[in-house]
Structure formats: structure tokens, C-alpha cells
UniProtKB/TrEMBL annotation:
Protein name: YnfA family protein
Entry keywords, A to Z: Cell membrane, Membrane, Transmembrane, Transmembrane helix
Record flagged with keyword Transmembrane: yes
Bilayer topology term: Multi-pass membrane protein
Segments passing through the bilayer: 7-28, 34-51, 63-80, 92-108
Compartment(s) of residence: Cell membrane
Record has Cytoplasm as a keyword: no
Upper taxonomic lineage: Bacteria, Pseudomonadati, Pseudomonadota, Gammaproteobacteria, Oceanospirillales
Length: 112
């Protein structure tokens, strides 16, 4: 699996996870109908399936690298969906997390 494919997979998984969690947020915190939970559950199942498609040899490594992408995608969600402009600390933190994810994903490892 190429790095771009992995990144696309992680972004899709992050969107599915954020959407699923946002459905609970909307129901609980924004007084939306409990019907919001149904697509949210489906979205969370999609998230888990997408993340399992990662080409990483170990689940822990896949999850660790995904975490950085999740954080950056969450900041994008803040901006694009919730209409709140990220501040410099949001952007700096997301950038640091993406660098960490890159080290985990792209770091040289001895052949198995």
C-alpha cells in the first residue's frame, strides 16, 4: 500500500469516526433527535472497518499513525463543519501530530 493510499484511508476513517462521534454530540449537546444516533453508529462501524484496511504490520502502529491524521482532520472539521476558524495553537498542534504520524509511517525499519 502506498503512502498516499494509506493517507487517503486514514482521512476517510477520520471523517467516519468524527461524523459518528458528532452524531452523539449533536444528540446530547445540541438537542437533536435520537435518530441522529443511527447514522452515527453506521459511521463508527465504517470507521473501524476502514482503519482495519491499513497496510501496517501491527495494529498499534496503524492506530498511532492514524491518530495524527485524526487530529488534523478534526481541526478541519472544526473549520468546515462547525464554522469555527482554528487558531494558531490548533494549527500548530495538528502540524506536530502530522509530523509524528509521518515518522511512525515512514520511518526506516529493518526487513522482517
Amino acid at each position: 500500500m502506498t503512502e498516499m493510499t494509506t493517507l487517503a484511508l486514514y482521512v476517510a476513517a477520520a471523517l467516519a469516526e468524527i461524523a459518528g462521534c458528532f452524531s452523539v454530540w449533536a444528540w446530547w449537546r445540541l438537542d437533536k433527535s435520537a435518530l441522529w444516533l443511527m447514522p452515527g453508529l453506521a459511521s463508527l462501524a465504517l470507521f473501524a472497518w476502514l482503519l482495519s484496511l491499513s497496510g501496517a504490520d501491527y495494529a498499534g502502529r496503524a492506530y498511532a499513525a492514524y491518530g495524527g491524521v485524526y487530529i488534523a482532520t478534526s481541526v478541519a472539521w472544526l473549520w468546515l463543519v462547525e464554522q469555527r476558524l482554528p487558531d494558531r495553537w490548533d494549527l500548530a498542534g495538528a502540524g506536530l501530530c502530522l509530523m509524528g504520524a509521518g515518522v511512525i509511517l515512514l520511518g526506516p525499519r529493518p526487513a522482517a
